[in-house]
TrEMBL record, chain A:
GO cellular component: cytosol
Protein name: D-isomer specific 2-hydroxyacid dehydrogenase NAD-binding domain-containing protein
Domain of life of the native organism: Eukaryota
PANTHER family cross-referenced by the UniProt entry: 2-HYDROXYACID DEHYDROGENASE-RELATED (PTHR10996), GLYOXYLATE_HYDROXYPYRUVATE REDUCTASE HPR3 (PTHR10996:SF268)
MF terms (GO), sorted A to Z: glyoxylate reductase (NADPH) activity; hydroxypyruvate reductase [NAD(P)H] activity; NAD binding
Keywords: NAD, NADP, Oxidoreductase
Domain D-isomer specific 2-hydroxyacid dehydrogenase NAD-binding: 115-288
Domain D-isomer specific 2-hydroxyacid dehydrogenase catalytic: start-end pairs: 49-319
UniProt-listed InterPro entries: D-isomer_2-hydroxyacid_DH, D-isomer_2_OHA_DH_cat_dom, D-isomer_DH_NAD-bd, NAD(P)-bd_dom_sf
Family listed: Belongs to the D-isomer specific 2-hydroxyacid dehydrogenase family.
Alphabetical list of SUPFAM superfamilies matching this protein: Formate/glycerate dehydrogenase catalytic domain-like, NAD(P)-binding Rossmann-fold domains
Automatic annotation (TrEMBL), chain B:
Family in the record: Belongs to the D-isomer specific 2-hydroxyacid dehydrogenase family.
GO cellular component term of the entry, any: cytosol
The UniProt record lists the keyword NAD: yes
Pfam name, any one: 2-Hacid_dh
SUPFAM superfamilies named among the record's database cross-references: Formate/glycerate dehydrogenase catalytic domain-like, NAD(P)-binding Rossmann-fold domains
This protein's name: Uncharacterized protein
One Gene Ontology molecular-function label: hydroxypyruvate reductase [NAD(P)H] activity
Database matches in InterPro entries: D-isomer_2-hydroxyacid_DH (IPR050223), D-isomer_2_OHA_DH_cat_dom (IPR006139), D-isomer_DH_NAD-bd (IPR006140), NAD(P)-bd_dom_sf (IPR036291)
Highest rank taxon of the organism: Eukaryota
Occurrences of domain D-isomer specific 2-hydroxyacid dehydrogenase NAD-binding (ranges): 111-284
Keywords: NAD, NADP, Oxidoreductase
Record-annotated D-isomer specific 2-hydroxyacid dehydrogenase catalytic domain positions: 26-315
């Protein structure tokens, strides 16, 4: 399914041109088959680059100022992800290039995983599982009591489509929800904190669901972790860069924070090896977003955004940069 | 209640043990060797007026016979299937349990296990810890939890708490119970097989008794099907464990999240090698917060009994 310049010149002639910074994953390629003329950025000659109006970014392939500079007529960048931190915001803003994402599509899966991590960390599900599978229940007796989920104060950083669903789900567990975001949301029935440190101070669990931007990079630093406290739990389903990772490892080791559920890391797929021996953390491989259901949703949203753009209609999921 | 002789059948909670020791005359059954417990009971039979058992260590007819002064069994659990209720009734011995205080914990774990089983959370954790993300790439794709049809066997306190939680995930709720009660937003099925056939996730949340032993049998598991997931936070004997292991091996059942087993603490070894199951060692109510609340309820029942006041949570 890899696009090639020869195909572009042949059967695809007349179809809207879309530049790809990296190859499409098979399901997406199959889902969009026959509708567009795809050209890999690396294969695009100057003439092709000069006429391109749209870019489609599979997964988290970087869209640098360099690449954008090669595409003088570019108007649209379609992302297949919820977060768009891999796309150069400043360059897009300057040139009025619009960016679309898929966070609505991913929201239920990310929110489910975030709740799964909250329960797994507080109730020690992964550690209790390992205890049982090693035969220790029969040999060494009951697994020690863990921490209750119901009634905990949960602070959500970023009350967008994902954060909103996390809030709704954990409220049904009897948790008390508060949040931090760029500005208060008048429609949200939860308490707003203007700083993450204050939110951490008032929370037993802090869930990171916000976008990674220059303002949010390393927003969870030592001060925030100290405010969360020794019984506090950090869950990150946003981006690794939201957390000072080295400091998090230190805080977990020193007992400054009580535990963590982490789906994302600073240098994926590298995970700080110190975490591997800790039974108060639950780790995963940046997979909260991905299920067959969400992949189908991505295909639908990408298709709808591209179709809307090329027929001059309003975009489905434009991001405010 | 300094004069109340209380037999604690096993170590179950440090706070409970400390308070019983402080407030009563405490006898610790486990301190005598297993082959000399009859002797131990005989020696203290005149003094023991109360027994505190918990889920895996109950009170059988033999123990009741051995304790002629027994007045009350105050169980450190909500389930009292290991207490011989008939023998208690016959002797006029009162029985209390610890309902309500553990409802949230068990429901939290039930939903946590359902998400963990569908999204393979412990499996992904093992994968990352083994360094496989870096060396072999992403872990396997898993199914969405939101929107799945959740079937609940037994819409009592725990079942309703599970229903309330999964509603927030936009999961349609189906249920079965022996005596139908109206729940306008949930769909009733008159049999467990029909419930399983119409559900993606089946949660066992009913009490264990002669009607519910092996309520999840081969036929039910086949109705749940190769994509279905069984969650048991009730009691091990609710499920025909051998049939479940066979169904999981053959792929007739998709997966399971299990907190309870038929012969605890023994778990069928065949499950240890499976990647489509999440197994935890009967930790449904195992949180510091809830264990303290359960201990306070056991103590409160014993105090009410001694003071001649109504018991807080009387079963018999």
């Amino acid at each position: 399914m890899a696009p090639s310049p020869s195909a572009a010149a042949g059967a695809d002639a007349g179809k809207p041109l879309v530049i790809l910074p990296g190859p499409l994953f098979p399901e997406l390629a199959a889902g969009l088959d026959g509708r567009f003329r795809f050209v890999l950025a690396a294969d695009a000659d100057e003439g092709t680059a000069a006429e391109a109006r749209a870019v489609l970014v599979a997964a988290l392939a970087p869209v640098s100022a360099d690449l954008l500079g090669r595409l003088p007529k570019l108007e649209l960048v379609v992302a297949t992800s919820a977060g768009v931190d891999h796309i150069d915001h400043a360059a897009c803003r300057r040139r009025g290039i619009r960016v679309t994402n898929t966070s609505e599509v991913f929201a239920p899966d990310v929110a489910d995983y975030a709740v799964g991590l909250v329960v797994a960390v507080l109730r020690r599900v992964a550690a209790a599982e390992a205890y049982l599978r090693r035969g220790r229940w029969a040999a060494d007796g009951d697994y020690p009591p863990a921490t209750k989920v119901s009634g905990k104060r949960v602070g959500i950083v970023g009350l967008g489509s994902i954060g909103g669903l996390v809030a709704r789900r954990l409220a049904a567990f009897g948790c008390v929800i508060a949040y931090n975001s760029r500005s208060p949301k008048p429609s949200a029935p939860y308490k707003f904190y203007s700083s993450v440190r204050e939110l951490a101070e008032e929370s037993d669990v802090l869930v990171l669901c916000c976008a990674l931007t220059e303002e949010t990079r390393r927003m969870v630093n030592r001060e925030v972790m100290e405010a969360l406290g020794k019984d506090g739990v950090l869950v990150n389903v946003g981006r690794g860069g939201l957390v000072d990772e080295a400091e998090l490892v230190r805080c977990l080791r020193e007992g400054v924070v009580g535990g963590a559920g982490l789906d994302v890391y600073v240098n994926e797929p590298a995970v700080p090896p110190e975490l591997f021996g800790m039974d108060n953390v639950v780790l995963s491989d940046h997979r909260a977003v991905i299920t067959p259901e969400s992949i189908q949703g991505v295909i639908d949203v990408v298709k709808a955004n591209l179709d809307a753009f090329f027929s001059g209609k309003p975009l489905i999921s434009q991001v405010q940069l | 209640m300094e004069s109340l002789g209380v037999l604690l059948v096993a170590p179950m909670n440090a706070y409970l043990e400390q308070e019983l020791d402080r407030r009563c005359r405490l006898f610790r059954l486990w301190e005598s060797p297993a082959d000399r417990r009859d002797e131990f009971l005989r020696a203290h039979a005149a003094s023991i007026r109360a027994v505190v058992p918990y889920a895996p260590h109950g009170v059988d007819a033999a123990m009741i016979d051995a304790l002629p002064s027994l007045e009350i069994v105050s169980s450190f659990s909500v389930g009292i299937d290991r207490v011989d209720l008939a023998a208690c009734r016959a002797r006029g011995i009162r029985v209390t349990n610890t309902p309500d205080v553990l409802t949230d914990d068990v429901a939290d774990l039930a939903v946590g296990l359902a998400i963990a089983a569908l999204r393979k959370i412990p499996q992904a954790d093992r994968y990352v810890r083994a360094g496989l993300w870096k060396s072999k790439g992403d872990f396997t794709l898993t199914t969405r939890f939101s929107g799945k049809r959740v079937g609940i066997i037994g819409l009592g306190r725990i079942g309703l708490a599970v229903a309330k939680r999964v509603e927030a995930f936009d999961c349609p709720v189906n249920y079965y119970q022996r005596t139908k009660q109206e729940h306008p937003s949930y769909t009733y099925y008159p049999s467990v097989v029909e419930l399983a056939a119409s559900s993606d996730v089946l949660v066992v949340a009913c009490p264990l008794n002669e009607h519910t032993r092996h309520i999840v049998n081969r036929e039910v598991m086949e109705a749940l099907g190769p994509k279905g997931v069984l969650i048991n936070i009730g009691r091990g004997p609710h499920v025909d464990e051998a049939a479940m292991v066979a169904a999981l091996i053959d792929g007739r059942l998709g997966g399971a999240g299990l907190d309870v087993f038929e012969d605890e603490p023994n778990v069928p070894e065949a499950l240890f090698g499976m990647d489509n199951v999440v197994l935890v060692p009967h930790v449904g109510s195992a949180t510091h917060e809830t264990r303290t609340a359960m201990a306070d309820l056991v103590l409160g029942n014993l105090e009410a009994h001694v003071a001649g006041k109504p018991l807080l949570t009387q079963v018999v």
